[in-house]
Design goal:
With 345 residues, this protein is α/β, with parallel strands linked by helices. Helix content is 43%, strand content 15%. It has a 5-stranded parallel β-sheet with strand order 2-5-8-1-9.
């Protein structure tokens, strides 16, 4: 793989083992090639959104989950389905509505007759959560009780039903969508559930040239023929590979300091954070900053992350973890401004 140094590596954390053998370097090079091939395949269907595709793959390889926010018509569902097709993974779409029940997600038990014995017994019918990629469409349309049905699955990769625990197939990747415009009849996600999402990704409108290309392809008889790039076994191997990437102590310290500076009224916290922020990011933000930096460095042909990798991922990692207060709302300031100012300082 290009630009991989096989010389002295920075001191690694206890969770990271320096990877200097040929097999790991070869696997890292293979991941770069697979990633480029994936982007080429997705580009047959999705015009633009390259940064979002990059971040989705970073989250998948880091064993994280993503919350996608965007107005209707930006191909959020099509993007997720296309990635699942290219990755040769099972895909399940859950349309969240006010009447959706937790068992509609996790599954339910039914009473049926045993043909051989003639008796009746309960049998568990698995719900749509038993797939590799889960699209939780408009997740804020359903009450908190149903939203919470995903909590155990997202954190533990398992589901408990009728006192029985079922392990979900790996890889397990939850992609939830929200519409930022229409908020009537919605149930905002609690902070505990928001914190389970590695990234909060905002999809913007396409450029004029991109929209021309979108209209040209979608109003014709064009049908993309997608090739499979990776399967579940390969993805799991790449996820394990990411964990072996060594990280310099100064990069870890930067990630921890960056997350810590978002917490108001603590030593070292900037005055504007204490003035405009009610609650900052927790330790999970520091973990995701480092994990995301590891993946980004490998995908860019480097085998150890830099502070710039952490800075690049700070916005999607921290955006939904910073809760601004009334002072910020009165002055029209959002968490995005807080993060940008924090990085600049």
């Amino acid at each position: 793989m290009a630009n991989i140094s096989t010389g002295t590596t920075p001191r690694a954390t206890s969770a990271s083992t320096p990877a200097t053998n040929g097999r790991e370097l070869e696997a890292a090079s293979d991941l770069v090639q697979k990633f480029r091939a994936l982007k080429q395949e997705v580009a047959k269907v999705i015009i633009g959104q390259e940064a979002v595709i990059d971040q989705l793959m970073i989250a998948l390889l880091a064993r994280g989950h993503c919350l996608l926010v965007g107005v209707p018509g930006l191909a959020k569902t099509l993007l997720i389905r296309t990635i699942s097709d290219v990755l040769h993974l099972s895909f399940s779409r859950i349309q969240f509505t006010p009447d959706l029940m937790p068992t509609d997600i996790t599954g339910t038990e039914i009473l049926e007759q045993n043909v051989s014995t003639g008796g009746k017994e309960f049998r568990f019918i698995r719900g749509p959560v038993f797939a590799n990629i889960i699209l939780a469409d408009e997740i804020n349309r359903t009450p908190p009780k149903t939203q919470a049905a995903l909590l155990e699955a997202m954190q533990e990769h398992r589901v408990t039903a009728a006192n029985t625990t079922y392990t979900l197939s790996e890889p397990f990747f939850v992609l939830a969508t929200q519409n930022p415009i229409e908020q009537e009849g919605t149930y905002p996600l609690p902070e505990a559930q928001l914190d389970r999402f590695m990234f909060n990704l905002w999809l913007d409108y396409p450029s004029e040239q991109e929209e021309i290309e979108i209209v040209r392809t979608t109003t014709s008889d064009y049908a993309a023929a997608l090739s499979k790039v990776m399967d579940a076994k390969e993805i799991i191997a790449f996820q394990d590979l990411v964990r072996t990437v060594p990280v310099a102590e100064n990069v870890i310290s930067y990630a921890v300091r960056l997350a810590g500076r978002t917490r108001p009224k603590r030593p070292g916290t900037p005055d504007f954070i204490s003035k405009y922020v009610s609650y900052g990011a927790g330790p999970r933000a520091s973990q995701y900053l480092v994990l995301g930096a590891k993946v980004r460095s490998v995908l860019n042909g480097r085998y150890t992350p830099s502070i710039e990798d952490v800075r690049t991922l700070a916005l999607p990692v921290l955006r939904h973890r910073i809760i601004t207060n009334f002072n910020a709302e009165a002055e029209g300031l959002s968490s995005v401004e807080m993060i940008e100012r924090l990085i600049a300082e």
